[in-house]
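hey can u run this one w/ MU-OXO-diiron bound, need the structure tokens asap thx
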Amino acid sequence: MPAVQVAPNVYWVGAIDPGVRDFHGYKTPIGTTYNAYLIMDEKITLLDSVRHGFSDQLFANIAEIVDPAKIDVIVCNHGEPDHAGSLAEVVARCPKAPVYCSPNAKKTLTSYFGADSWDLHVVKTGDTLSLGKYTLHFLLTPLVHWPDSMMSYLPELKLLFSNDGFGQHIATEERFADVVGYDCIFDRSRDYYANIIMPLGQPVKTTLAEAAKLDVEIIAPMHGTIWREREGIAGIVSRYDDWANYRTKPELAVIAYDTMWHSTEAMAEKLAEDLRTQGKQGSVFSLRKSHISQVVAAAMEARTIYIGSATLNRGMMPQVAALLCYMKGLGFKGRDGLAFGSYGWSGEAPALVDAALKDMGFQTGDPVRAQYRP
Ligand code: FEO
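ok here u go:
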């Protein structure tokens, strides 16, 4: 994928990874991109690098614009390996360039990548760096997505480099959300938010409040496509506001289950049918066929979550336990829940699921059990 102009003198020079299917446990069925950006100004500036193993794409893209050795400034907005994994190679190829980063990123880079000998320049919110015509402004955004995360902003172009924020895991040759289509990109943004950003509602709200003070016409995240139209920017910011505030839709429900001999499955299908007759939408997921990361993406906006498990060895089915563990970590809030399941003789699973839902703060109804066949 060649370099792509994002704005005057600003280029996407990142890498596309269509093959990645697992992002620390989050299934990524259509891959991702690792976005890096090059600003051609009096000080030639590279914002971020790419995952280890993808530096050939990065350097080839930079070389279309300029010799990488001529880069004057490197900015590291985030030290997670999907963005900083090639930074050591970049530092080696750009020997005169200092690396600007947050105080926490200095710790990350030093601990993770042995950056003690790098020329690290620590910045904080409000600090600026003149590049010539353009001036970079730095905004620390801790916990969106790691404590070290920050965003960078070019006021002359009204361009926000938003780090993990507003990103999507999608491997596409297209660089702009409006070209791929908003229906697709909003859905991929939802999947990404649910699986990565969801536990971080308060830091996201803080970041949205700070970003609202900026005049933004382009949002360039470090994954997926770039937002450059009013419709797209308004749409994704509005969705982030909903998601950060854990708003849900009463008409949406998710039904996730694992079954032994199809009885719990039959209960799940009857639930979905009953919801339809009430004018609600119940999305059904067999945990044998759907990964838990798909389930939580669908569940993020659902008011009610039904979880079914057959009883296996006096406990719940293992995939149901995995879903509940994952949901607890993601911090689902303010939901209604119901446990259900079939059993042969002991039947503990629905009560165990109910206890797990209550532990997450769900309002639950009495668990529903059916012996052998519902
Ligand atoms: Fe895309 Fe938190 O790294």
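The two ends are 54 Å apart (CA to CA). anyway lmk if its weird
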